[in-house]
């Protein structure tokens, strides 16, 4: 099976490469400089040439704050390029898997969001990602849109790596404690994507198409997540770092973020029998890879 993936140095595309190699799957990653998603027509030649059995659309403009000013660029990459890719998939008569985000939701719901809830993004990034979803649905029914959240991994840039970097020079880091969400490990996303890809390539059943939520089990706040990161780092020999819990108002940013972006993963489990590992289990794996194994308990 030939799997075409957009993105070359990102968290999810790298995880797909690492896991795909282990499973003996052929992963073809395309990205800058050969293709530039801000010029979506640049996708056509490499996609046709690759003759894939399935496309995984992972690349995106993920700088949430910068998107507030680079609106047009973010729209091209997150909105229009997925639409072009989905039209190509339709033409080639192959399925497309696409990653979207918890930031399509406003964040004012008390419970976790389900696929039946109405998106209402509060940031440019969220709006452009929603446009990508809409353009994919319009182009082909043969799609699986997977909304994930708070992605971290040993690869690329993410909150875990940012905290570890800040912890090198500080004894305390202030982190927002009033945004609730589901940290998700990119290697777990890759595991799910490859399992789903293998199913949709051989099975035309419409009930395994559509929109699904895909996050690590469990929920937390950024402050609690940071605390777990520093505790895990300390068990691996790093110096202790305190987390000072603050409010969103204390940490002004150009983009507004949802207060609650927890996603309910029941539909994915019911449809594909897939549940991602709990985020603390995955965080351990991530820290093992970034720092090394936990030190022996002296007792
Ligand atoms: N990170 C997160 O917390 C979350 C991510 N998602 C979604 O999951 C998907 C994967 O995210 P993640 O792996 O973290 O993203 P990353 O930011 O780690 O990687 C994004 C990839 O897209 C590439 N890219 C960006 N702009 C262009 C362009 N103009 N042309 C070609 N390639 C480009 C990047 O290349 P380069 O590095 O060279 O710029 C990089 O390889 C995205 O669709 C994202 O919206 C959803 C929820 C949470
Ligand atoms: C670095 C830092 C961040 N924060 C806050 C800002 C923000 O509310 C939260 C997380 O910071 P980040 O910059 O990682 O957050 P952000 O870039 O908004 O992360 C989002 O990325 C996009 C791509 C998604 O799709 C989302 O699911 C989500 O993962 O923590 C602190 O409070 N203290 C700090 O020292
Ligand atoms: Mg960020």
UniProtKB/TrEMBL annotation:
Protein keywords: NADP, Oxidoreductase
Protein name, per record: dTDP-4-dehydrorhamnose reductase
RmlD-like substrate binding domain: residues covered: 1-290
Listed EC numbers: 1.1.1.133
InterPro entries per record: dTDP_dehydrorham_reduct, NAD(P)-bd_dom_sf, RmlD-like-bd
Cofactor note: Binds 1 Mg(2+) ion per monomer.
Segments passing through the bilayer: none
Stretches the record annotates as Disordered: 244-264
The organism's place on the tree of life at top rank: Bacteria
Function description: Catalyzes the reduction of dTDP-6-deoxy-L-lyxo-4-hexulose to yield dTDP-L-rhamnose.
Reaction equation(s) it catalyzes: dTDP-beta-L-rhamnose + NADP(+) = dTDP-4-dehydro-beta-L-rhamnose + NADPH + H(+)
Pathway entry: Carbohydrate biosynthesis; dTDP-L-rhamnose biosynthesis
Single GO term (MF): dTDP-4-dehydrorhamnose reductase activity
UniProt cross-references to NCBIfam families, sorted A to Z: rmlD
Upper classification of the organism: Bacteria, Pseudomonadati, Pseudomonadota, Alphaproteobacteria, Caulobacterales
Entry's family note: Belongs to the dTDP-4-dehydrorhamnose reductase family.
Broad EC category: oxidoreductase
SUPFAM superfamilies referenced in this protein's UniProt entry, alphabetically: NAD(P)-binding Rossmann-fold domains
Cofactor: Mg(2+)
GO BP term, pick one: dTDP-rhamnose biosynthetic process
Source species of the chain: Asticcacaulis taihuensis
């Amino acid at each position: 099976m030939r799997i075409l993936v957009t993105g070359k140095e990102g968290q999810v595309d790298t995880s797909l490469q690492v896991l795909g190699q282990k499973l003996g799957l052929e992963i073809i990653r395309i990205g800058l400089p050969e293709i530039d998603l801000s010029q979506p027509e640049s996708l056509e030649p490499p996609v046709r040439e690759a003759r894939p059995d399935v496309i995984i659309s992972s690349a995106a403009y993920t700088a949430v704050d910068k998107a507030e000013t680079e609106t047009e660029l973010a729209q091209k990459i997150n909105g229009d390029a997925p639409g072009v890719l989905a039209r190509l998939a339709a033409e080639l008569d192959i399925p497309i898997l696409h990653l979207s985000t918890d930031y399509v939701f406003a964040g004012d719901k008390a419970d976790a969001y389900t696929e039946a809830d109405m998106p209402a993004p509060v940031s440019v990034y969220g709006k452009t990602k929603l446009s990508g979803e809409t353009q994919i649905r319009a182009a082909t029914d043969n799609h699986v849109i997977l909304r994930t959240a708070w992605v971290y991994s040993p690869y690329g840039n993410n909150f875990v790596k940012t905290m570890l970097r800040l912890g090198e020079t500080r004894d305390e880091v202030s982190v927002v404690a009033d945004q609730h969400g589901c940290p998700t490990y990119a290697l777990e996303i890759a595991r799910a994507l490859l399992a789903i890809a293998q199913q949709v390539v051989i099975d035309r059943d419409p009930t395994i198409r559509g929109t699904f939520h895909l996050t690590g089990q469990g929920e937390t706040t950024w402050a609690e997540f940071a605390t777990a990161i520093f505790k895990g780092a300390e068990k691996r020999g790093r110096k202790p770092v305190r987390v000072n819990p603050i409010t969103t108002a204390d940490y002004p940013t150009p983009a507004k973020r949802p207060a609650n972006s927890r996603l309910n993963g029941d539909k994915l489990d019911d449809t594909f029998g897939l549940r991602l590992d709990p985020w603390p289990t995955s965080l351990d794996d991530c820290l093992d890879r970034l720092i090394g194994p936990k030190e022996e308990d002296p007792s």
